[in-house]
Design a protein that fits this description.
The complex is a heterodimer of chains A (263) and B (264).
Chain A (H helix, E strand, L loop, with lengths): L13 H20 L5 H17 L7 H33 L7 H16 L2 H12 L3 H26 L2 H9 L4 H35 L7 H10 L3 H31 L1
Chain B lengths: L1 E9 L5 E10 L4 E5 L6 H8 L7 E6 L2 E2 L5 H9 L1 E4 L11 H6 L19 H13 L15 H14 L4 E5 L7 H18 L2 E6 L2 H7 L2 E6 L2 E7 L5 H5 L10 H4 L10
Parallel strand pairs in B: 3-8, 3-9, 6-7, 7-8
Antiparallel strand pairs in B: 1-2, 1-4, 4-5, 9-10
Helix pairs in contact in B: 4-5, 5-6
The chains are: A mainly alpha (263), B alpha/beta (264).
């Protein structure tokens, strides 16, 4: 049989066609059915310009309050990361196939971590505001869950990647499960745990900034109030403060992380 | 001391790595298990203390039947059997001293004995003596991954000494080392075994090493014992037959360490 020239185009699969139809229908319905008024876009440049011009010069009247709110945000991130990382270690040991007491436990732990991750931050924050009230405690609990869901999964993946040799060596001495885990598994994965934790901290500073929008403490509360009172000069100041803080923290954290990788 | 009866190991993919081995080893005897890559010798060695579970047959060590032991009993048995690995298997990110201290974990698994810096004085000092005995004590404070291959295997021997075993199972202890470092490690291992009156089973694939160090040589091919006798009594042709038509069918299992799991 002589080779035939492949056709220029291939018929897409039925699934792909269906997916395109569904997505297309949603897009059309979204544009038409929700009553979006395109003329608003025409007004947008003027309004944005008004916001930006009233945001400058920055208003430093509330500087002390803003500084303490920003500090609260950072503290929420620090504490949330700390508690999250501490909980991540046992969670990861239960979720990793090679350290879990049984397959079932590993699967349940994984499912729990996936559930935590699938519910967005702000939804967790709303839940915790209901259960512990307004304020930074709700924020700390939210960030704890956020970090646990993230770091727990990454720790578990690292544990599963560990080469089995040293584990076998300690098993061969007659060591029980716990000394093997803490003597061989944890030290091997430790540098990676630290790097992941630093990254989780960066992530949670960014996350903690907006927690205040739903009343879970920190700079987000100030931002929300400034926008609602249309104090755009204060709002602009807060946005700049957030930008500066996040840039500094990311710079510091990535420096620490690259040290960890080299060391 | 060690009796193996009709031992068999079939891997889940169908490969028969050990195909009915019978072996009897006296207390204080040194046996070289010789065979090409894929002859089943590493699997046989690991089946002895159930680091890999055999699929059929029996192993008796010092009177107890290994296959019937519960987790506690198996750990007690493993304490008496030191293992040396081809891939050395130190924990890289911790100190040399910590690695040696961990040889004691079977005997004392309390949290403070997990690492060199936290262990009791008695354990730290004994670990230092073990390092001195294999002449790498000057590296005690270094991280294990900063040492050369030969030095690392000596540290592994110190970890073995820390365990105070009666039996040593050595799986290609020098295959990963250059020839000179390999000779040094072999000399040390044989001296330790002689001085302490230990029983040794050592797998090798290099004929010259087997001839030099072996007293009794057991030859394996395709998971079966093909020859078993005193080194001096075996002629070259018989040994060469072990390496003929090198059947590669269980090559992939020779290095397998079915040990990703932490439990017994």
């Amino acid at each position: 049989m002589s080779p035939t020239l492949p056709p220029r185009l291939q018929r897409p699969s039925t699934g792909a066609v269906l997916a395109m139809i569904v997505l297309g229908a949603l897009a059309v319905h979204g544009l038409v059915g929700t009553g979006i008024d395109p003329s608003r876009l025409l007004l947008a440049p003027e309004r944005t310009f008004r916001f930006l011009s009233s945001a400058f010069p920055p208003n430093l009247e509330r500087a002390p309050n803003l500084a303490s709110a920003m500090l609260e945000t950072i503290e929420i991130a620090v504490l949330g990361t700390l508690f999250g990382v501490i909980l991540s270690l046992p969670a990861a040991l239960l979720a990793a196939e090679n350290t879990a007491p049984s397959r079932l436990v590993a699967r349940l732990m994984r499912a729990a971590l996936t559930t935590m991750r699938s519910i967005p931050d702000l939804v967790w924050a709303l839940i915790f505001v209901v259960s512990v009230g307004l304020g930074p405690l709700a924020g700390i609990l939210t960030m704890t869950i956020d970090v646990l869901a993230f770091a727990g999964r990454f720790f578990a993946e690292r544990i599963e990647e560990i080469e089995p040799g040293p584990i076998e060596a300690l098993r061969s001495t007659g060591a029980a499960r716990r000394p093997v885990i803490f003597g061989a598994v944890v030290p091997t994965a430790f540098p990676s745990f630290l790097g992941t934790s630093m990254y989780a901290f960066e992530k949670s500073v960014r996350g903690a900034v907006v927690l205040g929008l739903v009343g879970a403490g920190g700079i987000g509360v100030e931002l929300n109030v400034a926008f609602q009172l249309r104090r755009f000069d204060t709002a602009g100041t807060i946005v700049l403060l957030i930008l500066a803080t996040i840039l500094v923290i990311e710079r510091l954290s990535s420096r620490v992380r690259s040290r960890l990788i080299e060391g | 001391m060690i009796t193996v009866e009709q031992l068999e190991k079939r891997y889940p993919d169908g490969t028969l790595a050990v195909a009915g081995v019978d072996l009897h080893i006296q207390q204080g005897e040194s046996v070289v298990l010789l065979g090409a890559n894929g002859s089943g010798k590493s699997t046989l060695l690991r089946c002895m203390t159930r680091l890999i579970e055999p699929t059929a047959g029996r192993v008796l060590i010092g009177g107890s039947e290994v296959g019937t032991l519960d987790e506690e009993g198996l750990r007690a048995l493993r304490r008496r059997v030191g293992v040396v690995f081809q891939h050395i298997n130190l924990v890289d990110h911790i100190s040399v001293l910590s690695n040696v201290v961990q040889g004691n974990l079977g005997e004392d698994g309390r949290a403070r004995q997990w690492f060199g810096w936290s262990a009791t004085n008695e354990v730290r000092e004994r670990a230092m003596d073990c390092l001195e005995r294999v002449r790498v004590a000057e590296f005690a404070g270094r991280r294990a991954d900063q040492l050369s291959g030969g030095q690392r295997q000596r540290v592994a021997l110190a970890r073995l000494l820390m365990q105070r075993p009666e039996i040593v199972l050595a799986d290609e202890p020098v295959a990963a080392l250059d020839p000179r470092a390999g000779r040094e490690v072999m000399d040390l291992l044989w001296r330790i075994v002689d001085e302490d009156g230990l029983t040794l089973v050592c797998t090798l694939h290099q004929l010259d090493l087997a001839r030099h160090y072996g007293r009794r040589i057991v030859g394996l091919r395709d998971g079966r014992v093909m020859l078993d006798g005193q080194n001096a009594a075996i002629d070259d042709a018989t040994i060469a037959a072990l390496y003929q038509h090198d059947d590669q069918h269980d090559d992939q299992h020779d290095d397998v360490v079915a040990a990703g799991e932490v439990g017994a």
